Amino acid sequence: MGAAPESATVPHASYAYKATPLGAIWRFHLGSDAIEWEAGPRRGQLRYADIRRLRLSFRPVSMQSHRFLAEIWPARGPKLQMASSSWRSMVDHERHEAAYTGFLLELHRRLVSAQVATSFECGSPALRYWPGVVIFGGVALGLAALTVQALAGGAWMGAAIVGGVLSIFLWQAGGFFRRNRPGTYAPQAPPRNLLP
Question: For 66, phi and psi rounded to 5 degrees?
């Protein structure tokens, strides 16, 4: 991919990450009127005017508990996505938080300048989020009831174990649902809780 002349003067005009341990590195560059991308031998570009949706979300995966994801849908063709961290090996990953945030803020600035008709969305899709909230609430109430029952029966060790599991569950899953509430946002003010 040929570098645009502006890449030397515009910070955060490029971003790269590795989506899978054995896959190619995805590279993105913000050109004057399009996102240019490459992944191994594949390459292409997506004009800003053709971007119909952009979604920001918090998406932890195994061994990457502080991972954010941007998904970009064109008018036609498959979506592009970029994560805030890369796999370095089967058991190790690397965060790119400053580069990821800088790239996305610059992309938003360019979309605003281009006055494109893009839908800016945040969090998880509603059809996945709300059933997940119901399940989360049910599991939390169930663990809380088990803790109370163990305390009432004098099973202090059991209560401590279940209470510990409840605390970790509330911290991990609660953080996911708090960040990923579905909605839309103004492109001039991307949600800071969905940028690392």
Answer: -125, 65
